[in-house]
């Protein structure tokens, strides 16, 4: 009974909320995963409902939500529904699924060389995505030397900025798919 009520509320939200993709994506990820790296699903029907609603949605964020679900959900039954929804969105856009997903992925302010330069005090952090998909931060100090870790004086003087670089690296690592 609770599952039917939740599915009904999701369908209602698709009509009532102007841009429901963020809601559907969050619920779909939550229900389509267990929170661990396994194929266990909290609720297949709710995850599938979210994927179907995202596929039918005209919300520009729907592709991003579907792409995020496609990367993080590992359950085969839910992946089938996500793939169907991506096919629908791609057909509506007149593009291949791969192109639609690529357009929806965040760029994280990376340049053409897949690098981001972040000034921190008298040093700069260079965040880059390597060819194998690994993400690395290199710290270039004022004297031109490079280090894998920020110097202690910088970590003490600019803790928020240093933590921000680490958070950005983690965020990019989560989004990168080989």
Rg over C-alpha atoms, rounded to the nearest angstrom:
20 Å
Give the mean pLDDT. Answer: 89
The geometry reads as elongated
Strand order of the largest sheet: 1-2-3-4
Estimated structural class = alpha+beta
Describe the sheet with the most strands. Answer: 4 strands, antiparallel
- Share of helix among residues? 55-70%
Amino- and carboxy-terminal Cα gap: 40 Å
The stretches of 5 or more residues where confidence is low (pLDDT under 50) are none
The percentage of residues in β strands lies in 5-15%
Count of helices?
8
SSE order, one letter for each helix or strand: HHHHHHEEEEHH
Number of strands: 4
What's the topology here?
Elements: H1 2-16, H2 21-32, H3 44-56, H4 62-72, H5 76-93, H6 97-104, E1 115-120, E2 123-129, E3 135-140, E4 146-147, H7 152-157, H8 159-175
Antiparallel strand pairs: 1-2, 2-3, 3-4
Structural account:
The chain is α+β, with helices and mostly antiparallel strands and 178 residues long. Helix content is 56%, strand content 12%. The protein has helices spanning 2-16, 21-32, 44-56, 62-72, 76-93, 97-104, 152-157, 159-175; strands at residues 115-120, 123-129, 135-140, 146-147. Strand 1 (115-120) and strand 2 form a beta hairpin. Helix 4 packs antiparallel against helix 5. The chain is elongated and about 65 Å long.
Question: Which features does this protein show?
Answer:
alpha+beta; 8 helices; elongated
Task: Summarize the model shown.
By secondary structure, this protein is of the alpha+beta class. It has 8 helices and 4 strands. It has a 4-stranded antiparallel beta sheet with strand order 1-2-3-4, with helices on one face.
């Amino acid at each position: 009974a609770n599952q039917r009520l939740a599915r009904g509320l999701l369908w209602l939200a698709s009509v009532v909320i102007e841009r429901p993709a963020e809601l559907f994506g969050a619920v779909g990820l939550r229900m389509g995963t267990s929170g661990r790296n396994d194929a266990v699903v909290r609720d297949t029907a709710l995850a599938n409902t979210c994927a179907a609603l995202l596929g039918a949605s005209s919300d520009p964020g729907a592709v991003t939500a579907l792409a995020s679900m496609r990367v993080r959900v590992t359950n085969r039954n839910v992946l089938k529904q996500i793939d169907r929804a991506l096919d629908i969105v791609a057909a509506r856009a007149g593009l291949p699924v791969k192109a639609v997903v690529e357009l929806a992925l965040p760029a994280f302010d990376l340049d053409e060389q897949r690098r981001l330069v972040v000034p921190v005090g008298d040093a700069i952090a260079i965040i880059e995505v390597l060819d194998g998909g690994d993400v690395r931060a290199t710290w270039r100090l004022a004297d031109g030397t490079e280090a894998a870790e920020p110097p202690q004086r910088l970590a003490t003087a600019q803790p928020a900025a240093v933590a921000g670089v680490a958070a950005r690296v983690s965020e990019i690592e989560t989004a990168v798919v080989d």
